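Thread title: Can someone regenerate the structure for this chain?

I was given the following input by a collaborator and told the matching structure tokens would be attached. They weren't. Posting the sequence so someone can regenerate them.
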Amino acid sequence: MRILIYPHDLSMGGSQLNAIELAGALRERGHEVIVYGWKGELVQKVLELGLEFIQSPRPRFRPTPAIVADLRRLVLERQIDILHGFEWPPALECALAALGLKQAKSIATVMSMAVADFIPRTVPLTVGTEQIQAERKTRGFNRVSLLEPPVDVHKNNVNQQLGQEFRTQYSINPDVPLVVVVSRLVPELKLEGILSAIDTTALIADERPICLAIVGGGSSAGTVRERAEQVNLRYPGSIVLTGKMADPRGAYAAADVALGMGGSALRAMAFAKPLIVQGEKGYWKLLEPDSVDEFFWQGWYGVGSDDHGGAERLKSILLPLLDSRDRQSILGDFGRELVDARYSLGSLSRTLDELYLAELSHHIRTGNELGSWSLAAWEFTKYKLARLRQKLWRKTVIDDFNSNTVNARFGPRRPGNAIQQVMYLAGTYWDDVKGTDHMLATALSAQTEVIWVDPPRTLKSSLTADGPRPAKLLGTSRDQVTGKITRIQTFVPFGVRYPQLRKIYDKLTIRTLLRGASTIPSGARLIIHSSASASFPAEISGTKYLYVTDDWVAGEQLMGLPAGSVSKRLTENLAVADKVFAVSPHLATLIDQQQSKHVTQLLPNGCKISELSAGDRQPVIAVLGQLNERLDVGLLEEIRDQGLKLRVAGPLKSNNAQWATRMRKFLESPGVQWVGEIPPTRVPEFLAGCRIGLTPYTDSKFNKASFPLKTLDYLAAGLFVVSTNLPSSHWLDTEHVAIGNTNGEVIDILRQRIAHPTLDSEISERRAFAARHSWEQRAIDLIELSTLKEMPIT
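Best answer:
Regenerated them for you:
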């Protein structure tokens, strides 16, 4: 891809550094990358990374028409695929430059602590915290992703020599504890905490030696210098002001304790320094295992309860830490491990690369785009009028989206669960193979009560299902399948696949559901619909989510449903749903081509991270899951014929008798061990004895839109994965999943990997990757999207 990265300016700052470092990492991934913008001191860093720099026209009022025209010219001349603007002015200018062009797409990234409402909702947006992501979704920004601040963990690492050089340069006694803050010295967000840290230094200096080093420059440098001089008059040398540093690594390396927020906090963690997170209104909090979830949610920043007492609060945290070298070491190591696992530049550049690929294949309807830009124009007009009023009253704020933060308005913690009930209208029976619906409903039950609704069940299916069934020809039953999941079953004599009969049978189910519906407020009920053949119940109120778990239209024959009825039902449900989700990026694109009411959101399959069973990782290939005609039996036969050993677990289920006969013959052949269907509790044990997990799907329209559960299950068990050419496997974009375009490529990869012993470090990496895709996280994302309400601005 040809990518243009456009930071909001090229003076020293966290968002700009993030943009430039990501640009370098994207270039390392094989892309052609240009950095664009008005000249500034960070141009030198751009050139040091070997990136091409193109200077923009001078920014005037924003968006600047000359910049938009220049960007558009570059797109056409350089055949640029992606225009990526960081913060709102470049984001708007990139979006305007790409407007109407088929060959280029724009992306917006906002690392500030609040996001402008006038960024068009059809422009894909990335933000730096889970909290801001959730807040944007409540404002109708459905195309919003999380892109946390990246850290170059190789360049930012423990370095004692750099630390010693910093202390020597600034005459800091090596025996005196050093506290370091690296920050822009500006009024918004930063100044209050920096002044509080100076006051804290004075309080501690009354009791013991201490030095605070403040690294940075900005419009508030004079205010900071004046306060520091007052303290140094009483305690000489206790405050060191270095001014702006192009490379502050020596300061981080020299610190015993770091104070900071945002990217600066993360860089301190990369140097294995204990971190106290800085915020506003007296906010200071130590990073430790008990507080880390709060930072994952709100970012590396916070808002306290008052404007006073910050210095005393910081002292109460800092003094015990300075007195314990062991605790400093433990917390420093914890921070470093956290950065490696979640914030490394390589990992986040892969996330960005993945977003680019998805955007290039995404199509937006003209009507949606016009509506989005009209709303953005209205919001921009309101913004400009508000700025004009501020100027008239001489209350202009320079960095206004950092002066009215989401955290201050939206609350500092994850909101409580206002959803009291999830009604899950499933496309499968609870007792079927535990697939997407079953796993998501189970994870949701950890958050709230779940009412699981089985599809209607005929007498025949009742008799053949596992476990006893009530002897009913017509009627419903209710039973508690787990502590927080209640199942509703409807028993009918015949004809559940006929649309008219299905509507009649669904009335029975609805009547049962209505008996308990009045006890739950409609605003506290979430209705998740994932059935290809049923409709949303109009009689029951609640927030309606349509979850499309497969290409139901393409899979009518596979699922044994009447041709045409699935497409009609899908169209009806898309019109009724409040939000639409799809299990794979390819499927989301297909759905967006069918409807214009929503932008389909991605909710991929997840996995369960369980305890690993003991296993010696034999050179065996695992195949897990249902065995049906979605699998490429020809590929499996070729693998067997090459002498590679296969271990297979799953039930043989197929509507194609000829295919089923061929598959059974394969399963019973030498070199293949088939253990049949196994319970989920035995899956880790089954996979622990294997070296590779195989996802052998055919190249079909249905499979292209799918997201095989088995791929993440393999990774969760620490296996290397080999997959046929599926969009979902490409979406995962990890070195632990190899993709073969042909049977020959798949077999070559298997041969190479089967001879490669599995290392413990590789198992840990794969399980860490899978943990980011757990069912528990999927459930949290859904519940938060449903429950978040923006607090009023005061």
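The longest strand covers residues 475-482.
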